[in-house]
Amino acid sequence: MNRLDVVGKREPMLDAWDKAMGRARFTDDLTLPGMLYGKILRSPLAHAKILHVDLSKAKKVAGVKGAISGKDIPKKKYGIVPMAKDEYALAIEKVRYIGDEVAAVVATTWEAAEEAISKIRVDFEELPAVFDPIEAMKPGAPIIHEEVPNNVSAKIHKEFGNVEKAFGESDFLFEDTFETQAVNHAPLEPHAALAIVDPYGKVTLWASTQIPFFLRRNLATALDIPESKVRVIKPKVGGGFGQKIDQYAKDFCAAFFAAKTGKPVKFVYEREEVFTCTRQRHPMHIQLKTGMKKDGTIWSQQFKVIADGGAYNSTAPLMITLACFFIMLPYRLENLLFEGYHVYTNKPVGGAMRGHGIPQVRFAVETQLDRISEKMEIDPLDLRLKNAFQAGEPHPAKLLVQSCGFSDTLRKAAEEIGWKEKRGKLPFGRGVGLAGASFPSGVSNMSHISSGAIVKIERDGSITLLTGAADIGQGAETVISQIAAEELGVPLEDIRITAADTEITPLDPGTFGSGVTLRAGNAAKMAACSAKEKLLEAVAEKMEARSEDLEAKNRRIYVKGSPERGMSFQEAIKYYQYSDRPMPIIGRGSYSPPAKEPTTLLKENGNFSPAYSFMTQAAEVEVDTRTGKVKVLKMVASHDCGRAINPMLVEGQLEGSVVGGMGQALYEDVMTEKGQVLNPSFLDYGLPTAMEIPSIISVEVETDDPEGPFGAKESGEGTQLAPAPAIINAIYDAIGVRFHSLPVTPEKVLKALHEKKK
Amino acid sequence: MKKILKLQVNGEEFEVLTETHKTLLEVLREDLGLTGTKRGCDLGTCGACTVLIEGKPYLSCLTLAIDVQRKKIITIEGLSEQGKPHPLQKAFVEKGAIQCGFCTPGMILTAKAFLDQHPHPQEGEVKRAISGNLCRCTGYVKIVEAILSTIE
Known about the structure:
Distance between the termini of chain B: 49 Å
Mean pLDDT of chain B: 97
Helix content of chain A: 25-40%
Largest sheet of chain B: 5 strands, mixed
Oligomer: heterodimer
Structural class of chain A: alpha+beta
Mean pLDDT of chain A: 96
CATH superfamily of the largest domain in chain A: Aldehyde oxidase/xanthine dehydrogenase, molybdopterin binding domain
Shape of chain B: globular
CATH class of the largest domain in chain B: Alpha Beta
CATH architecture of the largest domain in chain A: 2-Layer Sandwich
Number of domains of chain A: 3
Strand order of the largest sheet of chain B: 2-1-5-3-4
Order of helices and strands of chain B: EEHEEEHHHH
Number of helices of chain A: 20
Number of helices of chain B: 5
Number of strands of chain A: 30
Radius of gyration of chain A: 27 Å
Shape of chain A: globular
Strand order of the largest sheet of chain A: 3-5-1-13-10-11-12
Radius of gyration of chain B: 15 Å
Largest sheet of chain A: 7 strands, mixed
CATH architecture of the largest domain in chain B: Roll
Strand content of chain A: 25-35%
Structural class of chain B: alpha+beta
CATH topology of the largest domain in chain A: Aldehyde Oxidoreductase, domain 4
Number of strands of chain B: 5
């Protein structure tokens, strides 16, 4: 490949200056004249019939401009996965968890809205509730959604190879059970929405969302109006991590009241609502049986996974499917039997969170692998290297892995942590561990998954780039602009980007599944290329050359290999106009990940993603045997993200993801008792602070993926799959105790050390 | 009950007619339009609303506006001098210490107040100083790097 000028550079994010100076506008920073403020009344009960909602006193509070309950809204279910729609914007007939939305009000001040909420009277008939997914699956358990009598709202049962036969052929069998906890995404920006409705019924919604186009669709469904009557604009978004994939009551209520009152309406969630009433990483019960061959081959695995879904589906079918398919990467596995259940309980709702169903099963696999390697007397690193999947290998589920640096990530992570010198050799209380993982770069198995881009070359030589991609702080706009700039041969500063406005920018599925760089990047590259080609044609005519012999670089267009034979970008545009070619120059790109047919992996196998990233995490820990406290000293994040479009942003992704993974391993836990969240604040939850962070070393393993724009793949989401097992494996190396449930709190460590002494 | 409050923010004098129970965060954002100060929790637990009062970091969500009249208040919008960004702002941009940017204003102001008192800190002291400011995006690594990079 040619030398790259913009791609591969450590560019600050395009909006970093705005954010540093306090100029960046998030949804809650926007105000409109006459704006009303909204509040939601939430259920105090985990499971109950709504007999009657009395709004009369609320409506009488001074300043109140509207109050509604479930019976005032269209009876239209919505949901992020079309086959799993199970939510109303406000509860109709019954509530299913503590925090479920019962009613909403708008008023001229926050205070009036709050007072009105306190004046709403609701008659409930309490129903028996169920909080444990295993209990919820049993006959006779309370039914949470009438149409799902056993509370199992999504399941997957798949076999690859022949597991029973393969267990018979195995030399060693290992069986373990694991449990993971609920983790909140905890973006720093609480969820917010602001809506206006014009006299013709057209809704404009500004929202903290990762998926403007999906939100447009969901909102249209819930409001029961055509999609063309909804415009969604994404201002700056203060982090999402998957939590801002779903539509929430705040989006619906803002739009609904805006239509009803003719005024702008804003809803902003409180931190407690973010913790209890949005989404969380699914807690899972995992049973895992593995058959090993004497030579260290992972020969067969059987899983039974029960995911605690809470009261609604959100991404349920996709989550449980991902958990299944990503057992078969990053290790070769020919025989797999996977039985997975997403089960309703009367608790906060599970949703997509960084890694989406995979971190939980990776925790099981990777910690069991360490137990296996000890029993079989094989070094855990060697065991992983032996089974490491390689590019181009046939895959049992027909995933098409065209680039794979997994083995390299293992070797480099081991080297950087000092594996050979440290593993099993550090004093008691100190240890090292590692774990591997793989993640898709976007998904190609659902509808609505294409990205578009438009590139306009303006008269002054500047470039306008339109993309539907949703930057939520990860730097999508910067990366996509770098790709377009590289393709056009101009510096990054020449690009002006407008993104994530459903009325102006082309379709894009949004930020999920780690597909943004690949999908929207490819669309931008195509659009830039098509605009460039128009310009090159004109230059070719002028220079009496063939356009395919020209290239664009450093704001010049010239004959390949002879930079002196050409003209500046500006001169080319001038010539273009004077040769009577129609302005403006517009290039278009539409990109869809290649798939012969849409495959919903639930039913048939197929290539799930256009590319797969691979990663290894290595941890060094110190366990204080007096207090039980685990301190992570060092984390190595070794990541094959294809070609890094912006290495500084990739590092930032890895570092943030590692610390989040550390939170899951040691601190974070959304604790509930009878469905009531006990710790819905940062004070009690356990989000890692700067005091806990280890030394983090990012090691990029570059591969050149044929499908990725300039060879790029996912970075940052997959990195959250393996930190927890790497840390748990390091704890074993330190104190000889294996933990099968997360998080590993000081209490658990002390208890385990005490039992070990006995 | 409403009252006229006299506030001195970013070197400018303001008179604001507002409820006496309003927090400084609310007055800054809603009455003065200074939305650079962020509301992340409203409980004093995340640090996103940090502003400087007489040079010291305060959680504006736990501070009543009426209590800080006539005191020198600096928000993120007022940190630059004559349009020139503060070295911390420049370092945060250039070192990649900003991702979503929601914690950034509070983080920068906390760091500024700390460095004013401790011009030559060790890395551990910087981490302790910003430990009341939460960030979910960056893992703090580049934030600490950026702060340390401004020390001569």
